[in-house]
Automatic annotation (TrEMBL):
Record GO terms (molecular function): glucosyltransferase activity
Catalysis performed (reactions): L-seryl-[EGF-like domain protein] + UDP-alpha-D-glucose = 3-O-(beta-D-glucosyl)-L-seryl-[EGF-like domain protein] + UDP + H(+); L-seryl-[EGF-like domain protein] + UDP-alpha-D-xylose = 3-O-(beta-D-xylosyl)-L-seryl-[EGF-like domain protein] + UDP + H(+)
Cellular component aspect of the GO annotation: endomembrane system
Signal peptide: 1-26
InterPro entries tied to this protein: CAP10, Filamin/ABP280_repeat-like, Filamin/ABP280_rpt, Ig-like_fold, Ig_E-set, O-Glucosyltr/Glycosyltrsf_90
Protein name: Protein O-glucosyltransferase 2
Filamin repeat feature ranges: 27-133
SUPFAM superfamilies, per the entry: E set domains
């Protein structure tokens, strides 16, 4: 028997040699010891609707795998020392690039959980990870003290440049004066919400007819106040698409919080309701979120279709131009409307409506066109998180993170009138490696700045910095109602956080 042993080895070597370095790369197997694991979901304190961490498969020589070793390579288990079953839903998402995104949603609060990450029954990296103390679930109303403890636990950045820029226009804010002037100035024509957070309770009054979108703002405020105590703060949220404050002089500016900013208004931007909801409802009501998109990026770059892709509705003139251009140059662009609402649908110009395409299917294409709708197109975070390259129209409209994106680093810029779109697509086709690099840098940006932890940090920092500018005390105004925390009777949570110290 022994004498036969060298033979298979020799054959294997020959086989690998024939395949060359590429072949041995794809054949590499992850090592339990060398594989890397990191992320906020490995710690007890950062409470998120869906907690998450990353696994980067690394082979025994220390080289990162760049292709999937198989969807079921790693097994992740949550183990409680006291309970046989835990109500935690875990998903291991294969990003197809040698890395995995593990997310879990907890439906109850537990003590001293262990996270086991296994590769063929062997613990990976520092697994088991021991989360000590109480690990609170999203529904648990158990805020941490005001101050920097929560920020440190969440690993929040020191500052957000966009918050600094927005608040720079305001030397101070006067809640009493705003309560007089803002409803008078905007309350009739616009849809506004007036919020006061006092003693970490949320109060609201609405103005205008269309206030349905209030639910998104209520939801993030309730979620945030369950996690951390907010300073007393009073502010107005614009529920409409367009930013409102068009005045220029800083003396009579009114502070208005909006989901979209523009270069000729002075509204204070927040993450969009769409992104906010997708964070709150990850592994819940939504299927498209910043995590699911990373696991559904279609074929690898080299197999993606090199036609530029777009789908959407007719909410801006340039979108009409884009579809016309696509019909003239189908070899370059596949753009079509799924809906006509704002303009007259002339089928001879714009073609028939097409069926909705699943967002994940966008990533069958290398080049994604991002064009404003009524305001900024709120799909940009998801487009960036995929592994296609984004061609972004230059625009005066922006979301809370646009000003941190760099053209040619995270996306390929396109003129506002789309005059150079064909040229830019051709450039990408001629510079495939560079285009791919931009695609990956955009994806990295999204992973670092647009996941749930970053979104919570952004809101918290915004309210905290804004509260510092208040020169009169925030008040519960006449007409405001309490926004109640949803009752969590089903899975009560014992809140063991000491409150005394911070309330001084
Ligand atoms: C391997 O992956 C990890 C995690 O993404 C990264 O920090 C590291 O730089 C990578 N190593 C190399 C050599 O690319
Ligand atoms: C690429 O996409 C275009 C437009 O959707 C389509 O017409 C074309 O057949 C596709 N090419 C390949 C090779 O699949
Ligand atoms: C900013 O707004 C001005 C109008 O005030 C406009 O002319 C300009 O093109 C905008 N900038 C961008 C980048 O769109």
């Amino acid at each position: 028997m022994l004498s036969f042993r060298p033979l298979p080895c020799l054959l294997l070597h020959l086989f690998l040699d024939l395949l060359g370095p590429e072949g041995s790369q794809t054949g590499s197997v992850p090592s339990a010891v060398k594989t890397l694991v990191w992320g906020p979901g490995l710690e007890a304190d950062p409470v998120l609707p869906a907690r998450f961490f990353f696994i980067q498969a690394v082979d025994s020589s220390g080289t990162n795998l760049t292709t999937s070793p198989g969807e079921k390579t790693f097994e992740v288990k949550m183990v409680s020392p006291t309970e046989q079953f835990v109500r935690i839903w875990i998903q291991v998402l294969d990003r197809q690039d040698g890395s995995f995104l593990v997310r879990y949603r907890m439906y109850a609060t537990y003590r001293d959980l262990q996270i086991h990450i296994l590769l063929k029954n062997k613990h990976v990296a520092q697994s088991p990870f021991i989360l000590k103390g109480s690990i609170y679930h999203e529904g648990c109303d158990c805020p941490q003290p005001i101050g920097s403890v929560w920020e440190a636990h969440m690993h929040c950045p020191q500052s957000f440049p966009q918050i600094d820029r927005d608040l720079d226009f305001f030397a101070s804010v006067d809640p009493d004066r705003n309560a007089q002037e803002i409803p008078e100035r905007f309350g009739q024509k616009q849809s506004l919400c007036h919020y006061t957070v006092k003693d970490n309770k949320v109060y609201v009054q609405t103005f205008g007819e269309h206030v349905g979108f209030r639910i998104f703002m209520d939801a993030i405020l309730l979620s945030l106040t369950r996690k951390v105590r907010l300073p007393d703060v009073e502010f107005y949220v614009n529920l409409g698409d367009w930013p409102l404050e068009k005045r220029k002089s800083s003396e009579n500016l009114h502070p208005i919080f909006s989901w979209c900013g523009s270069n000729n208004t002075r509204d204070i931007v927040m993450p969009t309701y769409d992104l906010t909801e997708s964070v709150l409802e990850t592994m819940g009501r939504v299927s498209l979120d910043m995590m699911s998109v990373q696991a559904n990026t279609g074929p690898p770059w080299s197999e993606k279709n090199a036609t530029a892709f777009w789908r959407g509705r007719d909410s801006r003139q340039e979108r009409l131009e884009l579809v016309k251009l696509s019909r003239a140059r189908p070899d370059m662009i596949d753009a079509a409307f799924t809906n006509f609402f704002f303009f007259k649908h002339d089928e001879s110009l714009y073609g028939p409506l097409v069926k909705h395409v699943s967002f994940f299917d966008f990533f069958k294409y290398k080049y994604q066109i991002n064009i404003d709708g009524t305001v900024a197109a709120y799909r940009l975070p998801y487009l960036l998180a995929g592994d296609s390259v984004v061609l972004k129209q230059e625009s005066g409209y922006y979301e809370h993170f646009y000003n941190e994106l760099r053209p040619w680093e995270h996306f390929i810029p396109v003129r506002a009138d789309l005059g150079d779109l064909l040229e830019k697509i051709q450039w990408a086709r001629d510079h495939d490696e560079e285009a791919k690099k931009i695609a990956l840098a955009g994806q990295q940006f999204a992973r670092n700045h647009l996941m749930g932890d970053s979104i919570f940090c952004y809101y918290y920092k915004l309210f905290k910095e804004y509260a510092k500018l208040q020169v009169t005390a925030p008040k519960i105004r006449e007409g405001m109602e309490l926004v109640e925390q949803p009752s969590d009777d089903l899975f009560p949570c014992p809140c063991l956080r000491k409150r005394s110290k911070d309330e001084l």
